[in-house]
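Need tokens for this chain, all 157 residues.
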Amino acid sequence: MDGPSHSAHLVLLHFGRTRVALTQRAVRSLEAAADAAFTATEAGALGTIAAGGSHWPVYALDEELAPLRDVPRQRRICALLATDTGLFGLLCDEAQVLQRQGLSAYPLPLVMRRAGTPLEGVLQTNDGVALLSSARALAAVVGVDAGAVAARALEIA
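Here are the structure tokens for all 157 residues:
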């Protein structure tokens, strides 16, 4: 996961029935999906969203954490995630901030480990199980163009 494992809070992003936990530090902001402009501007991106004086690519994942080519109507939130080179938006149904204290994290079971998976572990919450991931791993899954994101970061510097 991005950042130290002792981070005080986690953000739980919901993709249908799948819940993915990221460190709070990896999630720069939560925006309304309605604020995104859904016109394909980059390979794989569904559109862009304005934040911090620039426009960032927006993507969506299905319940299997595979990239979607169309905007799901039920995705009302755009989580702006931070990578080493900039930001990108990821559409989700819901987002929750959880205190990390009292939650149990476990390594990813062997049967779930496969090449290219964005999953890093499993988290036991009061409401069930969530999958641990990072902004960097999710960026790789959706195909965020690191060069394009870095260029946007320079635009706002």
